[in-house]
Design a protein that fits this description.
Chain A is α/β, with parallel strands linked by helices. Chain A has 13 helices and 23 strands. Chain A folds into 3 domains: 71 residues, Thrombin, subunit H, CATH 2.40.10.170; 247 residues, Rossmann fold, CATH 3.40.50.12240; 94 residues. In chain A, the strands form 5 sheets. In chain A, strands 9, 13, 14, 15, 16, 19, 20, 21, 22 and 23 form a 10-stranded mixed beta sheet that branches. Chain A is elongated, with a radius of gyration of 25 Å. Chain B is an alpha+beta fold. Chain B folds into 4 domains: 72 residues, Thrombin, subunit H; 76 residues, OB fold (Dihydrolipoamide Acetyltransferase, E2P); 234 residues, Rossmann fold, CATH 3.40.50.300; 142 residues, Bovine Mitochondrial F1-ATPase, ATP Synthase Beta Chain, Chain D, domain3, CATH 1.10.1140.10. Helix content of chain B is 33%, strand content 25%. Chain B contains 15 helices and 28 strands. In chain B, strands 8, 18, 21, 22, 23, 24, 25, 26, 27 and 28 form a 10-stranded mixed beta sheet that branches. The longest helix of chain B is centred in the C-terminal third of the chain and has 24 residues. Classes of the chains: A alpha/beta, B alpha+beta. The interface between A and B is large, with 61 and 63 residues.
């Protein structure tokens, strides 16, 4: 049964209100205006009044436009044909391929039963030492990349997409600049990863409501693939835009804002997306890496703050590098005991030395005299930054561990590193031992 | 005759209903949706319209859908078989739900919290002709390591005569185990399970007592400096990544308590999974049985429906009170109360109530206070003592404690364990701030000793702050000594290695013993002539102490290291051993 109404009572922001009967909460409608058709979703029922958020925005909508209710919620087509394709936030093709209409699945489905989850146990290798060695990414982890605007977070995501050892990449773009969209497309095409990728991209020029759909649609598709046994990596950029879109709708709906204008349910809304990350007992997994830009480098801003409480750590991108101090992978302990004997010790030891280097740097800037030890630290810090921290460094974990020992050997004696003797005797580069001996 | 209403509005998880007959505030109602019934709770009534929070996703509900009122308040089932289970916020057993529905939490499916088929070995206590009132023991069944009392249901007000009681034997929970006759001669039949509304405190006891007995958590900084009492309350506010959840997990493992109820309220599912998967494997050192046998987990993680999150802490505390009624000591750990408060805020927003600070509802404080007040130690009608201790974590926005939830909580709790970002960044775990935290309870170590040590900590911190400005060079040796002593105490006593088998949990006796040793070190005057040698002395001492912490108490290793520490001390202390002992005695008796 389809119902058509041709009288819109209220238009406010991107929300329109009509008088209608028998409408269900969350149902979709199609609005036909002079500028074309747009989908809209029911977000409030109040007696006979039905409020809809219009995906294409309300600009140009007339009070006499036709609203046709579709009696179904937002759906997306799911099949292997999705691979290598690019869609917008509504799930319609952005590339020149054909529209997919078969096997529709609902988006924003129920949450996974905690009793059916398992403790994560597999590392996802990325070839980026600051991730693999110091803050390992773990299958089914949800991690944001906290970043200031202007940092190369999209480059980082693209590299992870190219190199991560997973079966499938789903890229969700929220408010992506068109250039960045093209950048992703070109990088993944030239890197040969496009065939195992699916894009859902909302660009900054698209209607803001579509931005809200991107995480849900990406994750709904990812979930279906995961249930078929695939290991899926979902990359989203940028969740701050998503939150801002939510704020916009909330304010339009005259909701009481809680903190800096964001709605009171920001935490729950973000959590219901991030919590889709899962390792299914007996099927595949979803891992989420999402960019959260921090307005003004302020980690206490509501978006990064709420995100931090939800996710399992964060990568902190600053000055073009993943900062070793602010960054944390809460799940790394689950996997880095199984890689190589020296992984954990080297991870802690090198960071402690790097912290001492930072202190020395501070002393130096204040004009204190540099001791021999200080000089060693300065050398170490410089090497560490260029050989391991630099984002262009691309080596597998074992290579990064060896590189770590090389750097240590180039700067210190084994007993200065604070690493246990059984490790230094096993891993200390032999060449150095010869020159010393 | 059932009371039926019709949906007239939907806004997120709030549904507005028009009804004919009477409705109760906080009554449970079901929204009928095709073949499903979605559980909801009436939270406001205006004229012939009621607003309800729906405990499920509201997608698909339409105006005109039927609503069935039940005349019951939101309740939980109380009876044997709760221990070891994993529930959602509405007491749905999650593993059974998974068996039925697979990977996802399908809405509208409600299962029995207490397995109906399982047989229990009942032993009667009451005799025919006895006079009983609610909460009094009729008999008992063994539940794991506990004797589970079968009591007169708490909702049977009045005085009853036992008319019949079941013979010893095996019964299922729904089998009749007694018949009671009230003053008017009416007979009621009693089985092992009954309902109790979650938002009402169980008030079946003779007297509420003052919490004075320390609850030993085996976490040194808590037991020694910021103790918790049985039947008391405490809160752990902290920014993300400061270790709130790890602290709760450690407490749930090692605390000296009969039953632990973990309410994972609006937090990460992954953390709950760790508990779910690990607890059955862990052995409780006190009982030799799996930790799970004395644990109940209420799990309403962040992506599960918000209204059920609001209910989950009440579900948890009601079960805690139930076991308290058997003379047991129960610890309820709620992680995190901020998510619970946020659930209230979301609802309040949908109701378009006038917002208070940061859009939290104006009744936030009183609701938080009422919740914590459900903790307590009580003398039961039988004379036995039972308690509920409540520990809640708080996740303040931006890590700033000046926010409504933290402030409202601080007003009502007995101890404050404030976690600090500074300490967790410096990997000083547990990251409880030793200068800002407080406790109103008496712990296992007497006041004289703890206040002496706290003074030493304050003094050390002061010197540390000063040193940041004037550098080490500008600090006198005496001051530097004060600084080193404070740092020493911090690193060998306040910090604890959760991954070390021995160090992870320290018994009360051991804490007292080590504490006195440390006091004697703080009291001592040392013979070092420069800062360098002072620092290296304390570094060595610290190293030995850390080894000592890793040695099981009363092992040979423990004694050996203790001897070495004493020798180091003797070598550099200006006072003789006798003088030092005298000084100690004068100060602490």
């Amino acid at each position: 049964m389809r119902k058509i109404y041709s009288r819109i009572d209220e238009i406010s922001g991107n929300v329109v209100t009509v008088q209608a009967d028998g409408i269900k909460y969350g149902e979709l409608a199609e609005i036909t205006s002079a500028h074309g058709k747009s989908l809209a979703e029911v977000i409030l029922l109040d007696g006979g009044k039905v409020s809809l958020q219009v995906f294409a925005g309300s600009r140009g909508i007339s009070t006499g436009d036709e609203v046709r209710f579709l009696s179904q919620p937002m759906m997306v087509s799911f099949s292997d044909d999705l691979m290598g394709r690019i869609f917008n936030g509504r799930g319609t093709p952005r590339d020149n391929g054909s529209a997919l209409t078969e096997n529709l699945i609902e988006i924003g489905g129920p949450s996974v039963n905690p009793a059916k989850r398992i403790i994560p146990r597999n590392m996802i290798r990325t070839g980026i030492p600051m991730i693999d060695l110091f803050n390992s990414l773990v299958e089914s982890q949800k991690l944001p990349i906290f970043s200031i605007s202007g940092e190369p977070y999209n480059e980082l995501l693209a590299r992870v997409a190219l190199q991560a050892e997973v079966d499938l990449i789903v890229l969700g773009g929220c408010g992506l600049k068109y250039d960045d969209y093209l950048f992703f497309k070109e990088r993944l095409e030239s890197g040969g990863a496009m065939s195992r990728s699916i894009f859902f991209v909302h660009t900054a020029a698209d209607p803001v409501v579509e931005c809200l759909m991107v995480p849900d649609i990406s994750l709904a598709v990812a979930e279906k693939f995961a249930l078929k046994g695939k290991r899926v990596l979902v990359l989203i950029t940028d969740m701050t835009n998503f939150s801002d879109a939510m704020k916009e709708i909330a304010i339009t709906m005259e909701q009481v804002p809680s903190n800096r204008g964001y709605p009171g349910d920001l935490y729950s809304q973000l959590a219901s997306r991030y919590e889709k990350a899962v390792d299914f007992d007996g099927a595949g997994s979803i891992t989420i890496l999402a960019v959260t830009t921090m307005p003004g480098d302020d980690v206490t801003h509501p978006v990064p703050d709420n995100t931090g409480y939800i996710t399992e750590g964060q990568f902190y991108l600053k000055n073009g590098r993943i900062e070793p101090f602010g960054s944390l992978s809460r799940l790394k302990q689950l996997v880095n005991g199984k890689t190589r004997d020296d992984h954990r010790a080297l991870m802690d030891g090198m960071i402690k030395l790097y912290a001492s280097y930072k202190e020395t740097l501070e002393k130096k800037s204040m004009g204190f005299r540099m001791s021999d030890w200080d000089e060693k630290l300065l050398k170490y810090g410089t090497l560490f930054e260029s050989e391991l921290m630099d984002l262009s460094v691309n080596i597998p974990l074992e290579g990064a561990l060896d590189k770590g020992w090389e750097i240590l050997a180039a700067c210190f004696n084994p007993d200065e590193t604070g690493l246990r003797t059984n490790l230094t005797s096993k891993f200390w580069p032999k060449k150095e031992a010869v020159t010393h001996g | 005759m059932s009371n039926i209403g019709k949906v007239v509005g939907v806004n997120g998880n709030m549904v507005r209903v028009e009804f004919e007959n009477d409705v109760l505030m906080n009554e449970v109602a079901y929204v009928k949706l095709k073949e499903k019934r979605l559980k909801s709770e009436v939270i406001r009534v205006r004229g012939k319209r009621a607003e309800m929070q729906v405990f499920e996703m509201t997608k698909g509900i339409g105006v005109g859908d039927e609503v069935e009122f039940t005349s019951d308040l939101l309740s939980v089932s109380l009876g044997p078989g709760l221990l070891g289970q994993i529930f959602d916020g509405l007491q749905n057993p999650l593993p059974q739900l998974a068996e039925q529905c697979g990977f996802f939490l399908e809405r509208g499916i409600y299962l029995d919290a207490i397995p109906a088929n399982r047989k229990w070995k009942f032993t009667p206590v009451a005799k025919v002709g006895d006079t009983v009132t609610r909460g009094e023991k009729l008999g008992s069944v063994p539940e794991g390591i506990f004797e589970h009392w079968i009591m007169v249901p708490f909702n049977q007000y009045g005085t009853y005569k036992v008319k019949s009681i079941a013979a010893p034997g095996e019964y299922a929970v729904k089998d009749r185990i007694a018949e009671l006759e009230d003053e008017k001669g009416r007979t009621i039949s009693v089985n092992m399970v009954f309902q109790w509304p979650v938002k009402r405190a169980v008030d079946v006891y003779a007297e509420r007592l003052k919490p004075v007995d320390p609850l030993v958590t085996q976490i040194r900084i808590i037991d020694a400096l910021f103790p918790v009492a049985r039947g008391g309350t405490y809160c752990i506010p902290g920014p993300f990544g400061a270790g709130k959840t790890v602290l709760q997990q450690l407490t749930s493992r090692y605390a000296d308590i009969d039953i632990v109820i973990v309410a994972a309220c609006g937090e990460r599912a992954g953390e709950v999974v760790e508990t779910l998967r690990e607890f059955p494997e862990l052995i409780d050192p006190r009982t030799g049985k799996s930790l799970m046998e004395r644990t109940i987990i209420i799990c309403n993680t962040s992506s599960m429906p918000v209204a059920a999150r609001e209910a989950s802490v009440y579900t948890a505390v009601t079960m805690a009170e139930y076991y308290r009624q058997m003379g047991l000591h129960v610890l309820l750990l709620a992680d995190s109360t901020s998510r619970w408060a946020q659930a209230m805020r979301e609802m309040s927003g949908r109701l378009e109530e006038i917002p208070g600070e940061e859009a939290f509802p104006a009744y936030l404080e009183s609701v938080i206070a009422t919740f914590y007040e459900r903790a307590g130690i009580v003398r039961l009608k039988s004379g036995q003592i039972g308690s509920v201790t409540v520990g809640g974590t708080v996740s303040p926005a931006g890590g700033n404690f000046e926010e409504p939830v933290t402030q409202a909580t601080l007003k009502v709790v007995g101890a404050f364990h404030g976690l600090s970002r500074e300490r967790s960044d410096a990997r000083r775990y547990p990251a409880i701030h030793p200068l800002e935290s407080w406790s109103k309870y008496q712990g296992i170590i007497d006041k004289k000793r703890t206040s002496f040590v706290r003074q030493a900590l304050f003094a050390s911190d002061e010197v540390g702050q000063m040193m940041k400005v004037v550098g080490e060079e500008g600090t006198s040796l005496d001051d530097y000594m004060v600084y080193l002593k404070g740092e020493f105490f911090d690193s060998v006593f306040l910090q604890q290695n959760a991954f070390d088998k021995v160090d992870a949990a320290t018994t009360g006796d051991r804490q007292k013993y080590v504490f006195d040793t440390i006091i004697s070190i703080i009291l001592a005057t040392f013979d070092m002539s420069d800062k360098e040698s002072a620092r290296s002395f304390f570094n060595q001492l610290r190293q030995r102490f850390l080894d000592w912490n890793g040695a099981p108490m009363d092992s040979d290793e423990f004694k050996k290291i203790e001897g070495e520490i004493m020798a180091m001390l003797e070598q550099h202390r200006k006072e003789s051993a006798a003088e030092a002992a005298e000084k100690f005695k004068q100060m602490f008796g």
